[in-house]
Design brief:
Layout (H helix, E strand, L loop, with lengths): L2 H31 L3 H31 L7 H11 L4 H51 L18 H5 L1
Helix pairs in contact: 1-2, 1-4, 3-4
Length: 164
């Protein structure tokens, strides 16, 4: 396998990984919108697993780039190298660069949206907890240190009390 073919294979694997990441981030958005917190841990684990796989592929790609004496591991440098050494591959790699850029933008947008949804969920949870704590505080204010109902010690206005 030539180095160019191997490089293309790794770039295709990266693109596939990014497509998986996009799907996972979309799934995560749905989980956050519908408040399915029990599924959140699983989707985050899948995202981390995919990210690790993509990073391993990037490491392999960088190894091939080193063999080709390409110093910077970005698509622009790869295309520049191909223009001089393998012009027939330039168009394919330009399309791959376009795919990577589009996926990167989509993933970034989804990640920001998911972060905002997470913040919103935390705010809603905090407000719910505050409401619960307020109601518990109000209830406990009706009792003394020994758990005796404070309101029960006050005389109530009734016909029995008035006669006494």
């Amino acid at each position: 396998m030539t180095d160019i073919v191997e490089l293309e294979k790794y770039i295709d694997e990266e693109i596939s990984g990014y497509q998986t990441m996009e799907k996972l981030y979309t799934d995560k958005r749905e989980i956050l919108i519908h408040g399915k917190s029990d599924e959140l841990l699983n989707i985050d684990a899948l995202i981390l697993k995919t990210l690790k796989s993509v990073n391993n592929t990037v490491t392999k790609r960088v190894g091939v780039l080193s063999k080709l004496n390409i110093k910077k591991p970005n698509m622009s440098e790869i295309i520049k190298f191909l223009r001089q050494n393998e012009p027939s591959a330039v168009e394919r790699f330009e399309e791959k660069k376009k795919q990577i850029n589009e996926l990167s933008k989509k993933i970034s947008k989804l990640e920001k949206l998911n972060l905002e949804l997470t913040k919103h969920g935390i705010n809603m949870t905090n407000k719910t907890l505050e409401a619960i704590l307020k109601s518990v505080t109000i209830s406990t204010n009706e009792y003394d240190k020994r758990g005796k109902n404070i309101a029960g010690e006050n005389l109530e206005m009734s016909s029995i009390v008035e006669e006494a």
